[in-house]
Amino acid sequence: MRLRMTIMAALAALAGSVALYPLFSGRTWFWSGLGAVAVVAAAGLATRHFRWPAVFGAVGGLAALHLYLTARFTASEAFLGVVPTPESLRRLGELTREGWDAANRYAAPVPPVPGILLLAVGGIGLVAVLVDLLAVRLRRAAPAGLPLLAMYSVPAAVREDSVSWVAFGVGALGYLALLAADNHEQVGGWGHLVFRSADAPARPDTGVMAAAGRRIGVAAVAVAVLIPAVTPGIHSRGMFGMGSGGGRGGTQTVTTPDPLVSLKRELTRQDDLLVLRYRSNDTDRPDYLRLYSLDRFDGDRWTYSSLQSTARDRLSDRRLPDPPGLSSVPARQVTTRITVQRQVRDMSFLPVPYAPSRVSIEGDWRVHAPSLMIYSLRDSAGGRSYTVTSIRARPTASQLRLAGRTPTELYNRYTFVPERIPREVRRLAHEVTAGAATAYDQAVMLQRWFTQTGGFQYDLTAQPPQRGSDLVDFLINNKRGYCEQFAASMALLARILGIPARVAMGYTPGTQVTPGVWEVRTRDAHAWPELYFEGAGWVRFEPTPSGAAGQGTAATPDYSEPTVSSSSASTQEEESGPTETSPEASASASPSATAQRQDDLGAQAGTGGERSGDGAPVGWIIGVLLALLLLAAPMAARHVTRRLRWAGVTSRSGGAPSDPGEAAHAAWREMRADALDHGLEWRPSDTPRAAARRLGELLELDAPASQALGRIAHAEELARYAPSRPQTPPETLRADVRTVREAIAASVGRRARLRARLLPASTMGSVGSVTRAVGGRLADAASRVEAAFRRLPSRRAR
Amino acid sequence: MAVGTHGESYMRAPTGSGEPASADRPSPLRPSAPADRDGDGPDLDGLAQVAHKIRDAIESVIEGKPDVVRLALTVLLAEGHLLIEDVPGVGKTMLAKALARSVDCSVRRVQFTPDLLPSDITGVSAYNQELREFEFKPGPVFANIVVGDEINRASPKTQSALLECMEERQVTVDGVTYPLERPFMVISTQNPVEMEGTYPLPEAQRDRFTARISMGYPSPAAELEMLDTHGQSSPLDRLTPVADAADVRALIEVVRRQHVSPAVRQYAIDLVTATRNHPDLRLGASPRATLHLVRAARAYAALDDRDYVLPDDIQDLAVPVLAHRLLPTAEAQVERRRPEHVVTELVNRLPVPSSGK
């Protein structure tokens, strides 16, 4: 009967659709999807009832889906609320377009606007049609997994944090249940088995096979869920998700996770891997290499607004848009040839010195005009070499102090501070900068407060700021943090003071290896605030302590150096000087100091294959220790059992009258374990002397060993079956066991010897039985669930 | 009829030719047997001596078959009956006669033919003209060792006449029961049932034989040796008895006191039970088979100079003791799966009891 299969197919489609949950906010989509699946299933049942060909089954399903969508979304235009009319069709088209646009506009999770809902429900319904067609109509349950997988892959592609394992488990179990039901039916379809005995059941006994299948299924799902969770290094981290399929040249929404989230992740990397190497013609110390510009502060974290990317944004070796605001300040052109290491993965934003004016690189790279971020939708910078021509502004303190009025639009955009920033933070901003005459003086005082007077301490063990309250805590209470906190806080305080500010992330210039050639390593990852001054554009500040007690290769820009607001004269003097060399910069950190601080732009710049999870070194050490412990466990277990066996015998024989029978049993069991360890066969039907004879023949033992073997066997025989007790003392037996063990080890191959030592089969056997027991219990649980499932549809069917 | 009393007198004077010739011949067993009722060490040693003598005597006739000889002796010491099955001319009768002759006791030989009557075996009551009453003339079963040659050539009726004697060690004729002397052992030879002119033994009778053995062809070397010796004179003629009936009775007593640990008993029961549940078998082994198995194992262990029984003994005896009692199913017969194979498979499969408790 196909009713059960129909229902299972519908359930599988529904279970698969659970995986879509991260894409939508609210639950409306699920219930609408449920309706679509139900309608499709009903249509499938109907076409099968009338025995229409398979093609009509699919067409019928699609038609039913269309009716459902019409009724659900365009009831007012449709005839009788159900029958499609030209108007309803047009409305559906409009909605589809709307949904498409909305999908492009919003990052997941998207609000359930009708258009989006239509797309979602239509998609789920389409999958249901396909699953129904494949699994029920064509009786090919296995390929029905493909549409389900397609549904699952949508959120996996869009969301960085992927789908939770629960949703995955539900989907996988739904699919497995479908397979199980299908096979149950196929086996049942073979009819009666020919049984020897008369009382054969009417249907073939599928219990055994089903149990095996369930075991395998549950084990597979469990492995799929557990292994990635415990394996270091496998973390889903897509840089972009594609909001929706991009039409050629159309607008694409680039949603990225905000990079600050993952700042902490690779913070404690032990290995300081090379990220990129570059050659710069800058006469001074080169400028920072910027990856991101985070322009949006939502009260908790800094992120960047989603990028609207069009084909027009392609670099295609043209001149990039001018950097905003840079007009009156002297600037010079710098050319940098950058080679990113091949191992670097997922670096879809290019590290470039600000402000790039021309970038020559292969591949589809685009520029975000307002921030001048260079990014790609599909390429990664790993292994690429590219040349960047950038304009390096060289403002002086006086120029900055005399900066003009910021354009209103830019001002509004970059000084936005969410309402819920507490009053004490706002007050703090003003207190710190009390007495400053200009925005520039305020900025300098902020920087000084962070680096010198504020009592802040650079501390990599601090938790990454997740919420606004973390930043408040950093500013007011514990004052311990790393570049992330410093940069975020300074940008926030600057905004409070009305200075347009954003947070940049990227790399410090790194270390010069040969004249003109610099190397940037994962530890040089950094975050810093950029403040806007009309005329000079976006100007970098450095609130993070640099040098040995701070960010190793960070450097405070010269223009920010004047210590007090009144020292305009001193800044004037420096006007002509080289801009970027500062005392701190030359004091590049000692290795031990740098070892502690790495920032975490490695989020994507971290060299690829070796990326680990959180808390890298400690986690790794613990992991390695655990692994070693696991490896050593069988060996240790073997030693412990050996010791226990003999201990039981000798302790009894020590004071109290010894029982030689116990000793004989111990010796026998020990020898059996040894034989098993070395991969020798041990038959349960062997009597002691038969076993000894077989071992002796198998191994071609020499005389002393075979005598020892005979003694052990004889003692065991006596202990087991004879009225008298064996006379062999335990010490002799123990020596005999050792002799036999050595003889066995000498006669087997090296591999068997090694395995006997590392993975003794005698202990592995008990481990195996334990795992079998656990597996059996799991399978039982699964079968109960399955039975519950099975009861469910059959009740519905009636 | 007052046959019984007369029968008794006949019973006391067995007519067999093998009346112990040297009753006072020094035996290693007799002096020690009464004294050592509680310790079986000396008994066992004595048994070993006597048993080895018997074995050597038989082996001087039957060359190159130590296993067969040992099994035959085992059956003798286990108070059982032996069925020797093989093609003609491999020495079945020779083995039976050698065993009988090496023990100095009464031996009777019955050649089974299709026209043999039950009374030809058990004996008849005949009218004595002088005494004017019936007197019982005992048949050939009234002996310590009865050699039944080609037993499957007799009609089932005659075969059944042996039933009572074998199991209950007594003969009932005309309502009077005559007990048989101990030891009493029936050694039968038979040709494989596929051969011409044979009646297969009924299951009930097969079950009464402790063991069935087959001789097998001798090895070429043994056959050559046989040619040499048989060319001059029959080795049977040179065979002199090495023990007498009393010795054998003492030996049987020793065997009875052999230690069988509970584990071994359980093993025997497991093995027999397994034959009852085996899909290839229509009829499994009977409880009598269990009894015979353990009894034979005791004797087998004693012949190995042991005073305790090992699972090895059970394993060695499983096929000879069990196989001839099993009836394969029709499918197994068609597929030529013989009971011997089934028993061997079971022996290889059943786990040996590991604990002595």
Q: Can you say what the CATH homologous superfamily of the largest domain in chain B is?
A: P-loop containing nucleotide triphosphate hydrolases
Estimated structural class of chain A: alpha+beta
Give the fraction of residues assigned to helices of chain B. Answer: 40-55%
Low-confidence stretches of chain B: 1-42
Biggest interface and which pair forms it?
A: A-B, 17 and 23 residues
Q: What's the CATH first level of the largest domain in chain B? A: Alpha Beta
Strand percentage of chain A, roughly?
A: 5-15%
Structural class of chain B: alpha/beta
List keywords for this structure.
heterodimer; A: 798 residues; alpha+beta; C8orf32 fold; 6-stranded antiparallel beta sheet; 5-stranded antiparallel beta sheet; 25 helices; 50% helix; disordered C terminus; B: 357 residues; alpha/beta; Rossmann fold; Helicase, Ruva Protein, domain 3; 2 domains; 16 helices; globular
Describe the structure concisely for a colleague.
The complex is a heterodimer of chains A (798) and B (357). Chain A is α+β, with helices and mostly antiparallel strands and 798 residues long.
Write the layout of secondary structure elements.
The complex is a heterodimer of chains A (about 800) and B (about 350).
Chain A: H1 2-17, H2 28-49, H3 54-73, H4 86-105, H5 114-137, H6 145-158, H7 165-189, H8 207-230, E1 241-242, E2 252-255, E3 274-280, E4 289-294, E5 296-297, E6 302-303, E7 307-309, E8 331-340, E9 352-353, E10 356-360, E11 365-368, E12 373-376, E13 385-393, H9 397-401, H10 408-414, H11 423-432, H12 439-453, E14 457-458, H13 468-478, E15 480-481, H14 483-496, E16 501-507, E17 511-514, E18 517-521, E19 525-533, E20 537-540, H15 568-574, H16 583-586, H17 591-596, H18 602-605, H19 616-654, H20 660-677, H21 688-699, H22 703-721, H23 730-747, H24 750-758, H25 761-797
Parallel strand pairs in A: 14-15
Antiparallel strand pairs in A: 1-2, 2-7, 3-8, 3-18, 4-9, 4-16, 5-6, 8-13, 10-13, 11-12, 16-19, 17-18, 19-20
Helix pairs in contact in A: 1-2, 1-5, 1-6, 1-7, 1-25, 2-3, 2-5, 3-5, 4-5, 5-6, 7-8, 8-25, 12-14, 19-20, 20-22, 20-23, 21-22, 22-23
Chain B: H1 4-12, H2 32-35, H3 41-61, H4 66-77, E1 82-85, H5 92-102, E2 103-104, E3 107-111, H6 119-122, E4 123-128, E5 133-138, E6 145-149, H7 156-168, E7 170-173, E8 176-179, E9 185-190, H8 203-208, E10 211-213, H9 220-232, H10 235-238, E11 243-244, H11 245-256, H12 262-277, E12 281-283, H13 287-303, H14 311-322, E13 327-328, H15 330-334, H16 339-349
